[in-house]
Write a structure and sequence with these properties.
CATH superfamily of the largest domain in chain B: Aspartate carbamoyltransferase regulatory subunit, N-terminal domain
Number of helices of chain B: 2
Radius of gyration of chain B: 16 Å
Helix content of chain B: under 10%
Low-confidence stretches of chain B: none
Strand content of chain B: 35-45%
Low-confidence stretches of chain A: none
Oligomer: heterodimer
CATH class of the largest domain in chain B: Alpha Beta
Strand order of the largest sheet of chain A: 7-6-5-8-9
Shape of chain B: elongated
Number of domains of chain A: 2
Number of helices of chain A: 12
Number of strands of chain A: 9
CATH class of the largest domain in chain A: Alpha Beta
CATH superfamily of the largest domain in chain A: Aspartate/ornithine carbamoyltransferase
Number of strands of chain B: 9
CATH architecture of the largest domain in chain A: 3-Layer(aba) Sandwich
Largest interface: A-B, 15 and 16 residues
Structural class of chain A: alpha/beta
Number of domains of chain B: 2
CATH topology of the largest domain in chain A: Rossmann fold
Largest sheet of chain B: 5 strands, antiparallel
Order of helices and strands of chain A: HEHEHHEHEHEHEHEHEHHEH
CATH topology of the largest domain in chain B: Alpha-Beta Plaits
Bound molecules: zinc ion
Radius of gyration of chain A: 20 Å
Chain lengths: ~300, ~140
């Protein structure tokens, strides 16, 4: 039972609870109209202390498609909305107006503070560089739908694996399933941080390898999860120019990939996936966006205890 | 310097010099307790050490002591003799003893929330901030 719970970090839910959430997501996708009045009379508060249009739209459309309503603030007007008030106090008040809340805030741990004070279910919509659990749910649902399973997969992560929060969360979430093998593809400078290697990969005895060249491993992958390699992460321009093309996915590289491999990306992309790949049936990053909305619908319903 | 030895009470010895005052502040001292804090005493074990002596036998809050200086020794004295040595167990959870040093942590902006840390590893004495997961060694 997820009713009344919060979602602050990706591992707050057991794999069984996630499974139920994914079953519900699939049901909603099959017959969305059957759910269009599920949350009639309920209000979702979206508290975006920093702007993130995509995440906010995903939550708001999710609630509207369930027949519920939305209040909230975002970005520039956040400071006037909160008027220097503490997160704890703001959430105590919001808990009186709304039935469920999403918070996005630049400070790490802000969503936990919110959940301890709101008295209603709170969903973490991103707390700085710390956690973004609904992105992880979206990724897992996409893998489950596209590959039919969450176990026995060879998953390649490519790009900036040092700073990529999305990557760390997904590695941690996948490490709970059987037979996952991680192929970590990145320049030396952007390999996964020590805590990922020690706590997750070695700690849980996962199969993994770290490589610098995408071409060598592409033919073996079930999933390729791409992330952006940002210029500002490099110490000098030469290194960036030398490396950037090796981490760009184009149709030529896609020729090497298995027919049933899928390509994922948390979006927004810059140039790490060429636009020509978009029409390749293996490209699933826009499917991810859609899955993200449906998994948020299932999440809102479950936390509110709707059937 | 001479400080009277105590008849009945506890003596916390071998505290790292400079930590005595802070540890004492967490021990939940009552007005009836006679307390001696000796700072910068000479010691064989450390170059300098602090010592706390309290004339009273009852439960003291030793969680902060365990976290801040788990190599200190705690002896219970009855009728002038050591009758028990208390082992310092690292508490699983400590509230408002340690402070999070991560500038991106919500505790840096949110007033009036407790600073909560959880024990990660007793071997290395590492604690994790409940909010931001930052690991610190007290
Ligand atoms: Zn912290």
């Amino acid at each position: 039972m997820l009713k009344g719970k919060n979602l602050i970090e990706p591992l707050d839910f057991t794999t069984e609870e996630l499974e139920k959430l994914f079953v519900l997501s699939n049901k909603i996708m099959d017959k969305p109209l059957d759910f269009s009045e599920c949350c009639k009379g309920d209000i979702l508060a979206t508290l975006f202390y920093e702007p993130s249009t995509r995440t906010r739209f995903s939550f708001e459309t999710a609630m509207l498609r369930l027949g519920g309503q939305v209040i909230g603030f975002s970005g520039e007007n956040a400071s006037s909305a909160a008027k220097g008030e503490s997160i704890a106090d703001t959430l105590k008040a919001i808990g009186c107006y709304a039935d469920i809340a999403v918070i996005r805030h630049p400070k790490e741990g802000s969503a936990l503070v919110a959940s301890k004070n709101a008295g209603i279910p709170v969903i973490n919509g991103g707390d700085g560089g710390h956690q973004h659990p609904t992105q992880t749910l979206t990724d897992l649902l996409t893998i489950k739908r596209e590959k039919g399973r969450l176990a026995n997969l060879r998953v390649g992560f490519c790009g900036d694996l040092l700073f990529g929060r999305t990557v760390h969360s997904l590695i941690r979430a996948l490490s709970r399933y059987e037979g996952i093998e991680f192929i970590l593809i990145s320049p030396e400078e952007l390999k996964v941080p020590e805590f990922v290697r020690n706590d997750i990969l070695r700690g849980k005895d996962c199969k993994y390898c770290e490589v610098t060249d995408m071409l060598d491993v592409l033919p073996q992958l079930d999933i390729l999860y791409m992330t952006r390699v940002q210029r500002e992460r490099f110490f000098n321009e030469e290194d960036y120019i030398r490396l950037k093309d090796s981490y760009i996915l184009d149709e030529e590289k896609m020729l090497l990939a298995p027919k049933d491999m899928i390509v994922m990306h948390p979006l927004p992309r810059v140039n790490e996936i060429s636009v020509e790949v978009d029409t390749d049936p293996r490209a699933k990053y826009f499917v991810q966006v859609k899955n993200g909305m449906y998994v948020r619908m299932a999440l809102i319903m479950s936390l509110l205890g709707k059937k | 310097m001479e400080v009277n030895s105590i008849e009945n009470g506890i003596v916390i010895d071998h505290i790292r010099a400079g930590l005595g005052r802070k540890i004492l502040s967490y021990m939940n001292i009552e007005s009836g307790d006679t307390v001696a804090l000796i700072m910068n005493a000479t010691s064989k074990k450390h170059a300098r050490k602090d010592i706390i002596k309290i004339e009273n036998i009852r439960e003291f809050d030793l969680a902060a002591l365990a976290v801040l200086d788990h190599t200190a020794t705690v002896n219970v004295i009855k009728q002038g003799k050591i009758v028990e040595k208390i082992n310092l167990d690292l508490p699983e959870k400590v509230v408002d003893v340690l402070r999070c040093k991560n500038p991106r942590c919500v505790t840096s902006v949110e007033p009036a929330i407790p600073q909560i840390f959880h024990l990660v590893s007793p071997e290395t004495v590492e604690y994790r901030c409940e909010y931001c997961d930052e690991i610190i060694k007290p």
